[in-house]
């Protein structure tokens, strides 16, 4: 008798776990699953105005109509927006991709959203709109790698330590080769634990503009994978843009002037005109410029094995820096050289107490240039080991900008505070 009762009980339990019972199946549908909808690599991207908008993007293995259902967290009334199929091909790699802009959101609110098909519901993800006050951002330097496991560990551990961040930045050279689909999968997988819940502000680097044959190419994968705010210039979609968050206006530049010379010979001139208009129109308390290439090219150091050279400003810096100063930019963050250097404030191409803070943000991937660059008298701070990976945070409020630099284990090694 007891064996029969036990067998019946185990059978009922098994049917419930398999979804054969009506109640169990209903619960499973209510909870949802991104795997059931074929959705992967869900990511938020910053919008021009993050108080009321956000861009969502994701990929799938199957082409099918998607909708995004979103609501205030804990609310019962949902809104729905139809996703746009923006699939593309680059170097014979096919990407099935979708995007959906969310608009008319409430400022300083917590939303939840999920991506649905006609038959299945996706997982719920969170979305925090900008409240216009202070914020914290994670900043990752170049993540290009031959093996992305180190980048994955650094990114995920940094997020665990700073889980209250409002958005994150990648300073360009996200991957080593912009047409290599396997590298994009590795990069997207690395940020997957948090990419659906906090927005990304990406920069385009020169390695996004390389073909599989290591020739210069248009950065097709980058501009499709990351639908950033439009800049109003149809020839440069998603290559440079701006956005506001809290009291800060961010201007994100494309500094690939050498690479784009054959494809976009007017890039510098067109971007300069856009830059002037963008900075002039901003009434934000703080202005921060993000660009992949640094304003300097460092001279080779004595241990590099190369003929020593002098650190100097790059040619395009003589065009950009006067615009930064004219419109009172507070800080410029750069990357590209795979070393961390914070300079003394600079104005009119020389040290000045009331100058702009320039920070070369370091390296987060496995590609290193040990003992390549020499010392520079204008460097106020460097990483304890120049070839060591690092990441940064930026905290902002009405009165201060605070930049902190950390080693992969979370140990802080530099801090800069700007006050107004």
Q: What's the structural blueprint in terms of helices and strands?
A:
Elements lengths: L1 H16 L4 H10 L2 H4 L1 E7 L8 E7 L6 E6 L6 E4 L1 E2 L2 E3 L2 E3 L1 E6 L7 E7 L8 E4 L6 E6 L8 H13 L5 E4 L10 H10 L1 H4 L3 E4 L17 H6 L15 E5 L2 E5 L14 H15 L4 E5 L5 E2 L14 E2 L3 H10 L4 E4 L5 E4 L2 E2 L2 E2 L5 E5 L17 E4 L8 E6 L3 E7 L5 E8 L1
Parallel strand pairs: 1-13, 11-12, 12-13, 15-16, 16-19, 19-23
Antiparallel strand pairs: 1-2, 2-8, 3-4, 3-9, 5-8, 6-7, 9-10, 11-25, 14-15, 17-18, 20-23, 20-24, 21-22, 25-26, 26-27
Explain the overall architecture.
- It is built from 9 helices and 27 strands.
- The protein has helices at 2-17, 22-31, 34-37, 149-161, 181-190, 192-195, 220-225, 267-281, 317-326; strands spanning 39-45, 54-60, 67-72, 79-82, 84-85, 88-90, 93-95, 97-102, 110-116, 125-128, 135-140, 167-170, 199-202, 241-245, 248-252, 286-290, 296-297, 312-313, 331-334, 340-343, 346-347, 350-351, 357-361, 379-382, 391-396, 400-406, 412-419.
- The strands form 6 sheets. The chain has a 10-stranded mixed sheet. A 7-stranded mixed sheet has the order 14-15-16-19-23-20-24, with helices on one face. Strands 4-3-9-10 form a 4-stranded antiparallel sheet, with no helix packed on it.
- The chain starts with a helix and ends with a strand.
